[in-house]
Amino acid sequence: MNKLTLFHGSPDKIIVPTYGKGEEKHDYGKGFYLTESIDLAKEWAVCRPNERNGWVHQYELDLDNLKILNFQELGVLSWLAELMKHRDASDSKRYRVLAKKFIEKYGVDTADFDVIKGWRANASYFYIAKEFVRDNIDLYILEELLSLGGLGIPYCIKSELAYINLHEVKDGLIPVPYAQFNEKYNQRDIAARQKMRELINSDANSVTKVFSTLI
After folding, report:
1. Residue 30 CB contacts under 8 Å (≥ 6 apart), including other chains
2. How far apart are CA 32 and CA 19, in angstroms?
3. 7-27: per-residue pLDDT in tens?
4. What is the pTM of this model?
C-alpha cells in the first residue's frame, strides 16, 4: 500500500476532517490542508496572535486510486490562476477584469482530482501575488520568489475518496508551545518578506513579462 505521512497544525486538540468542510477562500478552496514538514505544522498550529498553545496531528494518506494535481508540474501561472479563483489579490476594477481573463487562459479544472498540492499562499506569498497583478514582478523571477519562504508544498484533501483514505495516526498527537513556535513563524515570514523585497528590487526583475502582458 502506497502511503504518505502528513501533518496538520491546529489550535484544536480534537479534529475530525470532514468532506465538504473548510473555507472557500483558502488557496485551493474547501478542503483539509496538510504538510510533509512537522516543523511547519508546528508553526501553523500557533500562527494566530492569541497566545494559545497548539497541536500537530499526524496522518497517513493512502495514495492508491487517488488522482493528485501537482501545481509545481503545471507551472506558476496555473497556480496563480487557481489562487485567483478563491482569493482576491486586489479590489480594483482593473484586477477583476484582468483576473477573469487570466483564469480563462491559465486556469485548470480541478474538479476531478482527489488531492491538490502546490505552493502555499501565506501572508508573504500572497504579497507576491498582489505585486504580480500590479505589474511589479516579472514572470521569470516568480518561481524563485515562491521558494524564498521555505514553506514546502502543502496538500489539500478535496474529494470524498481522499477523506476516506486519510487516517490519523494513533499516538501521533504532538503538543506545540506557543511562545517557541509562534516566534519561529513570525521570523520565517519576516525573513521571507525581506528576501522577496530584495529580489523584486534587484536587476533580475526586468519587469518586462508581467501580469497584464500575459493575457
Report:
1. 20, 21, 22, 23, 24, 158
2. 8
3. 999 999 999 999 999 888 788
4. 0.91
